[in-house]
Structures are given as structure tokens and as C-alpha cells.
């Protein structure tokens, strides 16, 4: 980095408005920031610690709302921020305040952390938000760092695992590794731990093809949590869409992310990022001014159409990013492409994705964001997963997205939990879930892999807690157990919480194995919450967003090897028989080329009849599936008591039995077979081999 005693001067012959952010071009750095309503933009250069501001220089040029300038001699390691001038007129949506140092939305790496102070507010705390605060916030703000994008990827290429072969593992960078005894202690909680041999070995064992990471974009530990001694563990409070969260980096440098991704790719494992483009860490109009609000509040955020002084909130977090604005949309698209092209990630899960489709008339499945993704030659080829809801009107949109998006399917979660809880009358719903939820997804040329099937995710009970608690126990969150939802569809099977009763523990293990089998043997894409594969508990906390501690960290030393072995066997069977297909199944007489033929069977033998589906007390049935050019399998579910089931004709072998501790079987089965209570069985017909 150059000697900063002399004030740097811009070279107007080189400067470029088309590259947003701070882009190192080999001999200097081009700085560019979008603010349509600003009157002046100052680039602030700091020492390497980020604590001393050395120079303020006006960006010299502006075109189309992009303020830009090229500084020769400024290179990687330079710490910087912005001060943006313009009208302070909250009633018109403008909140410019040059006393507030602002983080570049395109910053690739951050230096320092947020230190909560009233100076971070653009108004005077204690007065209303129409007031103006003239304190300098630089001492309390993280800053951007100019980076060198060079990295030896060593022939790394995208894996492109077909959706029908994918098994997703939802995990948290820190929570996955913090207590892992085989991860070097200094690497725990970081990307180096994520890319460790121990983690990769575990993912291989259970057949994982893609790890889906909770937010790794730089995020804020909200002030109200810090003041309660808690923290934003999940990370759904984004501060920067380009920079990784610094505490996950052992050295603070982004190359650690690349090194972890490169190592996971060499192991055949894709990396999917959970991204939060629906809102930011700045909150509503009473929140802080740290980036977007001070750069151009009226452009970056949706504001109330009746009174632009107020934020328009469809996310429940205080603000909503204005993705319909072309330059905000560009920022989102630039971020996604950056993580694919520069960081080599393989896909994204979009938090509260319905917000991204909100146009003037509400949610639009053909909105600007979705159409931009679909036509993009880079992004349309990676894995795209929508969380298909938000809290706004018309926000619940399960099944409402177009290809190439897949969707989290909460109907699968709820019906599966209720079925195994022995709720009555759920056979019709469970048949839908086993078949890939065609009512929701078999339209608009969508494939049978459109549904991402899960029974637990980061938000809610873990799977083990689903069979261990009737009620949530969120007291550690400091909200008198009022937070978190009450619709858990759980059953403690005889004791609330931990138990040393052998009968209760056996029942819990059996139900957990049955629910995991339902996920792994259904059409669609299975997703397992990290830790559910070995019985991890959060002590009944179903909203552990603020628990960066042993409540949320995976307790590897308490792993139930029987559950782990079950997941291993289920994943192997799923791949062996090519169970998942890209086309939805049909009745044998209606099945066409390359379409699975499916029949629903009653325990007495033969196909289910109309009256059978209306039998509210029937809890045992089977899916008979003939896979084109492949195997013939029978998936049998019994959520009730011990029963007997008449197998169809053929030479069948029992390959999966979740009632047994070993789970995987390989024994002949014919005629009428006993089906133990709360069990999933999978049979393979061996006299009809794949072509």
C-alpha cells in the first residue's frame, strides 16, 4: 500500500463508472458508488487498522447516479468508507448525513466491527427521527477493504450435481465445527474448520452432496441482543452482500472461504449459501445509518407509499430492500454473480423469497428479480432454492415459483410430523408428499425435484426435540418464552425433555428414523438439518437465533450412532436404486416414456380404493414404484401399531427397516410380512433388474 501522507489524486483518464465497488485494477483502484439523490460523495481513506481517517476526497465524476473515480497507487489492504451528502428530509424519504461513515455495499472484505453507539443514528436518539445528529460515527463502524481477487483455484470446476442425485445438509459454519473433537481447536468455528477432513468425512458418510450454509454475508449483532448478552447467531441481519462475516475467518482474509470451497469441491460437495436480500441490518426509520440508508434511503429501501418517512416492512425486520429498483436489482445480481464467479459457490437459498417478487401489485412470479435470474447465463445454471413466503399480504407462495427455482416445502414438514405423531386422516396428504407434492409443483413444466423436503430446519425444533418436547422452551432468549411459534406438531412420547426411560428413548429413536426415512425416500430433494443425522438437541429451544453457545452448537460427543447409521443406509439405498426422478409419477396405465409408474397399496393387498383414502384410522400404506430403465421398489409406511402387509407378487428383498437398530437389511420377503409399529420399510424387487 502506498505512502498515505500525501493526499492521493484521481486519474480521470482511467476512471470507470461501470464497475461498482472498490475494484483493484493492477496499478490502482477504481471506486464507484450508486446514489441517485446525493449531491456529493466523499471517499474516506483510513490507516490499516481502520481507526485513523487519513484523507477525505470527493469522488470526481458522476453519471446516471454512479459517483466514481480511479486512484493510482491504491491497492489491496486499503481501508475505506464513504460520506454521502444530500438532503436530510425524512418526510420525503431522504436521510443523508455526511457525519455518518458509510460502508460500501460492494465491499469484499471488512475491517473492524460495529461498536454500538448512539452516534450511529442519523437522528438524535431520544428525539424523533426528524431531528439531525452531527456526531461522527467512524469510530464505531467497520470499514471496507480493497482486495486482490487473485487465487489459485487449481483447476476447480463447478460440480453440477443433478438435482435428482442431491442430498442437502443445512449447517452453520460455527455451530457445525465449534465442538467437533476432530477439528483442530484453532480452526473451530471458521471456514478452515468447515473444510476440515473431519467434516468432509462425516458428509461423505451420510451421502451429502451439498452443504447449505446459514448466512455467511457480513451481518450485525443487533444492539438489543448485545445489550442482553446475546448475539445474532443465525446471521439474518445482513450488513454487506459481498463480504464474508469476519468472525468466521481465522485470518480475517476472504481467501479462507475460497480454500474451504476448493477443498469441499475436491471432495465432490457443493456449497449453497443462504442469502438475505429481502432486508438489511439497518432496521426501520428509527434504526442506524450504516450503509444503504445514508447512501440513498429512497432508492435502496421500499418506503411507505402513504408517508415515505416510514419504511415499508414485509419481512418483520423493519425494512424491505427495494429489489424492483434497477440499481438495487443490479447490486443483488452483482453479488450473486460475484459469489459464483469469484468465490465458486454452487447455489443459493433465498430467505423470504416472496419479498424479492414484490412489485406494485404484490407478489409477481414473473417479477423483475425472478426474470433477471432466469435469463442470466451464469445464475440460471446454479442451484436456486426459494423460501417461498414472507409475512406480507399474499406472501405464502409454496408452489408459486417458476423453474429453475426449487422451494422449501413446509407442507412436507408439517404433514410428515403430523403423520408420524399418529394424527388421523393423513394418508392422502402423505401420498402427496411421497410423490413429490405434485399438487403444488406439477405445473408450468416444473420437474419432480422442485420440492425440497425436510422435517426440521434451523428455524424451529430440531428433529430430536420434535420427539422430546410438547412445548417450546425459549427462556434463554430473554423474552419470557413468548418468541418462537407454537405450531410445532411435536410429541414428547411420554416425558418433557431429556429422559432416562429406555422405552421412551427407544420410541424416540424409532420415530426419528422413520421421519428421516420419509425425507430420504420421497420424490424431491432431501434436506437434513445438521445434527438431525445423529440426534442433536437444542433443549427445546425452537428459536435459537440468538444462542451462539452450546444450545446451538452441535454436540458431537453425544451423537447417536444408530440414527447416523440409518441416514447412511438410507442415502446409499436412494442412490443405488435411482429413487429420485426428474419427472412426476403416474398410474401405470397413464405413465409415459421416462415417467415412473406408481401404485398405492393397502395392507390387505392390492391397490388402495376410494374408501380406503377416507379411512381416518388407517396409518399403514405403501408406494409401489417402477422406475423407467431402473428398479422396482416398494416404500411402506406404518405410523400406527404393529400390522401385517401383503406384498405384491415378485421376488422382493427387504433393504431398509427403520424399526431395527441396524436399519439396513437384505433378506427375502414374500407373502404377508409383519410391519412393526412406527416403521418405514423399503423393498427392492430383485427379479426385475435395471436395464
Automatic annotation (TrEMBL):
The UniProt annotation puts the region (Disordered) at: 475-500
Does the record bear Transferase in its keywords?
A: no
Mark out the compositionally biased spans (Basic and acidic residues).
Answer: 475-489
Q: What class of enzyme is it?
A: hydrolase
* Gene label: glgX_2
Task: Tell me which UniProt keywords the record has, alphabetically.
Answer: Glycosidase, Hydrolase
Biological process (GO) annotations held by this record are: glycogen catabolic process
Assigned protein family: Belongs to the glycosyl hydrolase 13 family.
In short, the EC number is 3.2.1.-
According to the record, the signal peptide region is none
* The species this protein was found in: Paracoccus haematequi
**This protein's name:** Glycogen debranching enzyme
Amino acid at each position: 500500500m502506498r505512502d498515505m501522507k500525501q493526499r492521493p489524486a484521481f486519474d480521470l483518464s482511467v476512471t470507470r463508472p461501470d464497475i461498482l465497488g472498490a475494484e483493484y485494477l493492477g496499478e490502482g483502484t477504481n471506486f464507484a458508488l450508486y446514489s441517485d439523490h446525493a449531491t456529493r460523495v466523499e471517499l474516506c481513506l483510513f490507516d490499516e487498522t481502520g481507526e485513523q481517517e487519513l484523507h477525505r476526497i470527493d469522488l470526481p465524476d458522476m453519471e446516471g447516479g454512479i459517483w466514481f473515480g480511479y486512484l493510482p497507487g491504491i491497492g489491496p489492504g486499503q481501508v475505506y468508507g464513504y460520506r454521502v451528502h444530500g438532503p436530510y428530509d425524512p418526510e420525503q424519504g431522504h436521510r443523508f448525513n455526511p457525519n455518518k461513515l458509510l460502508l460500501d455495499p460492494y465491499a469484499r472484505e471488512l475491517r473492524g466491527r460495529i461498536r454500538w453507539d448512539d452516534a450511529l443514528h442519523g437522528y438524535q436518539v431520544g428525539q424523533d427521527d426528524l431531528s439531525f445528529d452531527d456526531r461522527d460515527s467512524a469510530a464505531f463502524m467497520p470499514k471496507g477493504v480493497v482486495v486482490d481477487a487473485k487465487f489459485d483455484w487449481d483447476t476447480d470446476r463447478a460440480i453440477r450435481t443433478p438435482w435428482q442425485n442431491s442430498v442437502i445438509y443445512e449447517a452453520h459454519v460455527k455451530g457445525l465445527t465449534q465442538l467437533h473433537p476432530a477439528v483442530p481447536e484453532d480452526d473451530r468455528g471458521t471456514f478452515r474448520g468447515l473444510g476440515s477432513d473431519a467434516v468432509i468425512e462425516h458428509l461423505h458418510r451420510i451421502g451429502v452432496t451439498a452443504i447449505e450454509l446459514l448466512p455467511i454475508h457480513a451481518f450485525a449483532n443487533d444492539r438489543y441482543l448485545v445489550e442482553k448478552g446475546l448475539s445474532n447467531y443465525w446471521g439474518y441481519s445482513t450488513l454487506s452482500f459481498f463480504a464474508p462475516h469476519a468472525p468466521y475467518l481465522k485470518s480475517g482474509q476472504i481467501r479462507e472461504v475460497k480454500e474451504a470451497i476448493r477443498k469441499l469441491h475436491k471432495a465432490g460437495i457443493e456449497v449453497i449459501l443462504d442469502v438475505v436480500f429481502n432486508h438489511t441490518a439497518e432496521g426501520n426509520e428509527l434504526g442506524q445509518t450504516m450503509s444503504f440508508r445514508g447512501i440513498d434511503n429512497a432508492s435502496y429501501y421500499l418506503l411507505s407509499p402513504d408517508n415515505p418517512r416510514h419504511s415499508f416492512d414485509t419481512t418483520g425486520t423493519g425494512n424491505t430492500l427495494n429489489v424492483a429498483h434497477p440499481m438495487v436489482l443490479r447490486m443483488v445480481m452483482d453479488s450473486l454473480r460475484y459469489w459464483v464467479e469469484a468465490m465458486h459457490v454452487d447455489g443459493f437459498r433465498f430467505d423470504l423469497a416472496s419479498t424479492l417478487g414484490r412489485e406494485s401489485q404484490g407478489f409477481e412470479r414473473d417479477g423483475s428479480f425472478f426474470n433477471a435470474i432466469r435469463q442470466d447465463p451464469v445464475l440460471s445454471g446454479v442451484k436456486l432454492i426459494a423460501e417461498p413466503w414472507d409475512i406480507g399480504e399474499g406472501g405464502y407462495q409454496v408452489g408459486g415459483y417458476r423453474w429453475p427455482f426449487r422451494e422449501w416445502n413446509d407442507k412436507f414438514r408439517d404433514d410428515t410430523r403430523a403423520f408420524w405423531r399418529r394424527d388421523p386422516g393423513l394418508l392422502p396428504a402423505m401420498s402427496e408428499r411421497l410423490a413429490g407434492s405434485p399438487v403444488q409443483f406439477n405445473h408450468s413444466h416444473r420437474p419432480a425435484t422442485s420440492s425440497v423436503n425436510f422435517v426440521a430446519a434451523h428455524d424451529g425444533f430440531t428433529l430430536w426435540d420434535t420427539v422430546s418436547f410438547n412445548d417450546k422452551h425459549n427462556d434463554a432468549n430473554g423474552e419470557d418464552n413468548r418468541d418462537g411459534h407454537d405450531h410445532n406438531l411435536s410429541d414428547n412420547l411420554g416425558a418433557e425433555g431429556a429422559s432416562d426411560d429406555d422405552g421412551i428413548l427407544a420410541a424416540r429413536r424409532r420415530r426419528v428414523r422413520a421421519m428421516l426415512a420419509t425425507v430420504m425416500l420421497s420424490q424431491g430433494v432431501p434436506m437434513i438439518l445438521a445434527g438431525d443425522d445423529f440426534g442433536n438437541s437444542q433443549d427445546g429451544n425452537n428459536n435459537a437465533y440468538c444462542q451462539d453457545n452450546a444450545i446451538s452448537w452441535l454436540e458431537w460427543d453425544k451423537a447417536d450412532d444408530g440414527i447416523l447409521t440409518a441416514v447412511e443406509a438410507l442415502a446409499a439405498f436412494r442412490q443405488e436404486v435411482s429413487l429420485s426422478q426428474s419427472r412426476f409419477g403416474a398410474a401405470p396405465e397413464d405413465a409415459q416414456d421416462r415417467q415412473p409408474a406408481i401404485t398405492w397399496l393397502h395392507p390387505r393387498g392390492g391397490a388402495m380404493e376410494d374408501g380406503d383414502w377416507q379411512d381416518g384410522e388407517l396409518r399403514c400404506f405403501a408406494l409401489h414404484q417402477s422406475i423407467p430403465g431402473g428398479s422396482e421398489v416398494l416404500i411402506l409406511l406404518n405410523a400406527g401399531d404393529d400390522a401385517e402387509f401383503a406384498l405384491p407378487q415378485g421376488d422382493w428383498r427387504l433393504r431398509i427397516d427403520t424399526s431395527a437398530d441396524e436399519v439396513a437389511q437384505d433378506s427375502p420377503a414374500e407373502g404377508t410380512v409383519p410391519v412393526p409399529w412406527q416403521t418405514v420399510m423399503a423393498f427392492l424387487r430383485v427379479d426385475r433388474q435395471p436395464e
